Amino acid sequence: MKESDLRETLSVMRRAAEASRARKHDVEAAMGLSHGRLEDLWAGVLEVKLRHLVGLAELIDVPPAEIVAAGCPRAQAASHRLADWIGPVEPPLAKKRAPEGAAPAVSVAIEDERLRRLIREELAAALAKKPAQDG
Asked: What's the pTM?
């Protein structure tokens, strides 16, 4: 992922947050930011993290991949898909059925090894924090 893609993705995130008309405090809370740090994120003072992207996506109720796809449209032209690397993926949340008539989730190829590592680290941290749920 190029630096310009990161900047564009951050711009997409900002526009989505503003369009949601959610209070700044609510956006910060959803993204896991301390009070007053949202503007630092938008200004590029803070590094955008996967938890920020996922938190915003949950707040506005869109797939995180859709935000990434809007910020990195060239990623759609990648020559591989995630399944090429790790096989078929059935995320735990995929068991929930999308509402009838909902648009399919956008798939995004992740080319940059730094981004792959960041995603793995953020997912591991999120899973470590999540309490086990009885079935």
From this structure: 0.61
Residue 73 has pLDDT above 50, yes or no: yes
Measured between alpha carbons, how far is 109 from 107 in angstroms, rounded to an integer?
Answer: 7
SS3 readout for 61-84: CCCHHHHHHHHCHHHHHCCCCHHH
Q: Which fold has domain 3-77+105-129?
A: 434 Repressor (Amino-terminal Domain) (1.10.260)
Mapped onto helix, strand or coil, the DSSP state of residue 76 is: helix
- Best CA proximity match to 16, nearest among 56, 69, 49: 56
Angle, helix 50-60 to helix 24-31, in steps of 10 degrees: 130
